[in-house]
Recover the amino acids of this structure.
């Protein structure tokens, strides 16, 4: 066995160890998330879900109807992505705290708007008072690949301070669209 084969095996072992570590973390996160619910709540949710799925399958005539509905939803999604320019590549959610009337979740979201990449990380606090649910975004962190423009950096800093996600998405959509136009114009004159 030569040195190259030995190194390849070592690299493969390290890659497998890393994969095991990541899967273990993911398993522990799922275990932690499930500990927030009592056995009674889990059983109630399962029964509720079974009742919903049985009612849904009775309401649809056939598998072809479900496929048609799925195709319709995919068409609508692609239409919305075309209009807004947003394409989300990943999303993860982790429940940090859950009580009777308060839930804290940590979200990670990444994607592209036209050609500009972005990543968001934030905590979402949901509080329920009677029948009213209020949500608050906190610990917002935004990472954008193209922040060479100082105005974009200032804008991102302001959004991180106030935690206003709708304004971020609206502004990013407009900025990214005009960013594409500027880029095309400069290429035209080169």
């Amino acid at each position: 066995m030569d040195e190259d084969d030995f190194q390849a095996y070592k690299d493969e072992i390290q890659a497998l160890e890393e994969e095991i570590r990541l899967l273990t973390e993911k398993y522990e996160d799922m275990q932690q998330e499930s500990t927030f619910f009592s056995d009674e709540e889990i059983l109630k949710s399962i029964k509720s879900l079974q009742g919903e799925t049985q009612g849904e399958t009775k309401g649809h005539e056939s598998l072809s109807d479900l496929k048609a509905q799925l195709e319709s939803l995919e068409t609508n999604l692609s239409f919305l992505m075309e209009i807004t320019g947003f394409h989300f590549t990943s999303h993860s959610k982790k429940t940090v705290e859950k009580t009777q009337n308060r839930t804290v979740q940590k979200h990670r979201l990444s994607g592209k708007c036209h050609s500009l990449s972005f990543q968001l990380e934030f905590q979402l606090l949901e509080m329920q008072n009677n029948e009213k649910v209020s949500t608050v975004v906190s610990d917002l962190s935004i990472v954008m690949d193209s922040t060479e423009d100082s105005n974009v950096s200032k804008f991102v800093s302001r959004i991180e301070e106030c935690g206003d996600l709708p304004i971020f998405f609206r502004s990013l959509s407009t900025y990214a669209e005009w960013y594409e136009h500027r880029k095309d114009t400069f290429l035209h004159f080169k």
Remarks:
- Residues 3-34 form the longest helix (32 residues).
- The chain is about 60% helix and 25% strand.
- The CA atoms of residues 159 and 168 lie 7 Å apart.
- The chain has two domains: 1-50, 85-189.
